[in-house]
Amino acid sequence: MQAVKMTEVAREYRRLRTAVPLGVLRTRKEYDHAVAVLDAILDEIGEDEKHPLAELAEAISIFVEKYEDEHADFPAANPPAVLKFLMREHGLRQSDLPEVGTQGVVSEVLAGKRELNTWQIRRLAKRFGVSPAVFI
Q: Domains of the chain, with CATH numbers?
C-alpha cells in the first residue's frame, strides 16, 4: 500500500512542479520562472499572511534566495529585475518606493511597461547604495 501512495505522491509532485518551481533551482531559466511565479503569488496575496498561498510563496522564496546566494555574480540584468531583486533583499513593497513614484508607476516599471528616468535612477541608486549603472 505504501509503495502505491509514494508513486501517487511522485506523480502529483511532478505535475505540481511543471506549474510551480517548487524545488532546487539549477538554471537561470528556472530562477527567472521562479521569480515570476513568486511575484505573481505576492501580487495575489498582498499582505495577507494567512492567505492559502502564503506558505507556497515562502517556500519558493527560499529556493530563489538559495539560487541567488550561489550565483551572486549575475550577468547584467534588466532594470526591472534589478529593482525586484533589491526590493526582495530589503523587504520592500511597491508602495515603499516613493523614489519611483506611485504604486502604479512602480508596478509598470517592474512589469517592464515603463522605463526609469534619470531622476528615478539617481534616487534609487542613492537609496540602495548601488551604482546608477545597475538601472540602465
A: 1-75 (no CATH), 76-136 (1.10.260.40)
